[in-house]
Here is the input.
Amino acid sequence: MEVPCHQRMSHFFYLARCRDESLYSGYTHNLSKREKSHNSGKGAKYTAGRRPIKIVYSENFTTKSDALRREAAVKKLSRTEKLKLIRGG
Here is the structure.
């Protein structure tokens, strides 16, 4: 049985640019809430000292496992490849 559209949860892989221009990758089901969490210092330890952060790229998935798989794959990319992804290449 298919779940009604309003009951489906989105799962996002995202890249955030930190104040020091480093990139942080993560998973969330709510992009705006996650960005606020990072910027309040309650996000990842990595971003706490690099605030403010801005989510600059995201991909939407229907399952958490797909989003986490994508996050793991992107973490293996070079910085240059991540920047190309952000630019839409």
Observations:
- The mean pLDDT is 92.
- The helical segments are 31-39, 45-48, 64-75, 79-86.
- The radius of gyration is 14 Å.
- Strands lie at 11-17, 23-28, 54-61.
